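Good morning,

Both structures are done.
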Amino acid sequence: MTLYQLEYILALDIHRHFVKAAESCHVSQPNLTTQIKKLEDEIGVKIFDRDAKPVKPTPAGEQILLKARQILREVADLKEFVLDEKESLEGTFTIGVIPTLAPYLLSMFLPEFVRSNPKTKLKIRELQTGEIISELQKGTLDIGILVTPLEEKSIREISLFNEPFLLYLPEDHPLSKKWHITPSVLDPNQMLVLDEGHCFREQTLAICESDRTRNNFGFEYQSGSIESLIRLVDKGVGYTLVPEMAVLFETDNERIRRFDSPEPVREISLVVQSSFTKEALIEVLRNSILKSIPERFQKIDQYIKVKWR
């Protein structure tokens, strides 16, 4: 039994003529006739008396038509409900943001987003990528903002922008004399990196073409904070890579070096469950973020997208 078959029997009840019923449904008369016959055979009841002129419902058919109208009304109501859900911005939504992005991106777009969308309440949590993926799949999180690609079948990715990696150096470091920086000049053993579990760590090691570091700093430091790494570099301990938003207002700082083109970048995206229906919320959130970031993030022509998985 299909919804199309229910629509066909209702059309035949209205027009009492197979050709006119088929025309009203925009199908051929043989197709409509065949589908109605299939429905009658499936339920074992004759819905129409074809010997009558014009054709008319049987007594049992009258009851079936009544139920068919009710079912199609409920289907129409469901479609309208889903459409309203897609277009509605009202409600409370939980968003997970990775720690290497939250301190910088949230302050850029969140104040204006809140002012412009007073009926949308956001609960924002700092979570590592693995936690965001897990909670999206469990349904305890609505949206994630993180680094992609994830290549998870159950998760939809909505790309936002590409953020460049920059090299952050201590004062008077030999590399500070170079204005043309390529990944080949980096020494993994001099690189300060984040703790395991952070995708930024894996991307940093990928740029250095290494799977781990062996530093000679005299200590081992497990950190989830880019700011902590920057402060160590300021004191002359090694060097590190930073996302551009972490030093957005310091790009003329002599300790910062941009990589030669093609620049290594990380792709930032919104992610949702494949079944997430709030398309209007995704669109408004995406536009709000894009308006708040530097224009150049959307105009980088030559880049290398650094994967972390």
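Second structure follows.
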Amino acid sequence: MKKELIKYAVFALCILLAPLVFSGNYLMNVLVFVGIHTMLAVALNLLLGYAGQISLGHAAFFGLGAYGSGILSTTYNWNPWLAMTVVALVVGGLAFAIGFPILKLKGHYLAMATLGMGIIVYIVFNEWVAITGGPSGFSGIPNLELGPLVFDSDLKNYYLVWSFVLGCVLLSVNLANSRIGRAFRAIHDAEVAARVMGVNARLLKVQVFALSAMICAIAGSLYAHVMTFVAPPSFGFNISVELLTMVVIGGLGSIYGSFLGALLLTLLPEFLRFMHDYDIVFYGGLLMVMTIFMPGGLVRGIPDLFRKITGLKNKKGGAHA
């Protein structure tokens, strides 16, 4: 556990000092999105990487958080912090309720069920024009405030979002190293064996599904109050695929790997603008390549590659000697 605390402290220090190195509004804005995507990737990694339950519908929870917080704080004049809290709890409760029937499924059946859930939510965002604004989106969402401090600049939003990310990472690391985290890994590796050993696999799967949904909802609320505008395309199937790609590329079962995946996949679109609507093809290809050649993701693949390179150098040095 001491090793984990040191890793977390180094990670937090790098995050706090990043604005001193990467100055400029554009870079700050990109890093804000890296933070939001990190929260989403960590949420999905808890479900997929630790508990072994795939989901292609997490963009729905992200969207429910964004629209819920935006509508409550704008249309009904709720305090944004209260709106975020209520929406996170409601989305968590909804995920808990639908998790019981959905998580009875396994493999591609589970993937299809979560995909269907995501599509239904996306259609609601598009068609419920009176509430969500439909395809035109929903605007006028207020920035978050903390006393006299208004989070209305890229630098302020950076520290706001990354404060939540650091809290999310700390929670996830502690959970992963706890008795519950070990139970998640047991379910992931052999669910039948875990049940035999007394693990309540069904309840734990639903609980981690609900927790994952709540984190996504909080990320969605932050997105809404940072952007002050939300629209359905930001919560479609493509986003779910991107999240899955982030988790696989970063490393399944690695919290810090989620950050690496989010960082890479947030920066890549800046270089893929020429592909327009075909960027999803690139993500699919990247996912296949990573799964085949680097199944442990970047967080495990890079050290393995380094060891192989240094091992080859040592062998060559020994041959010359």
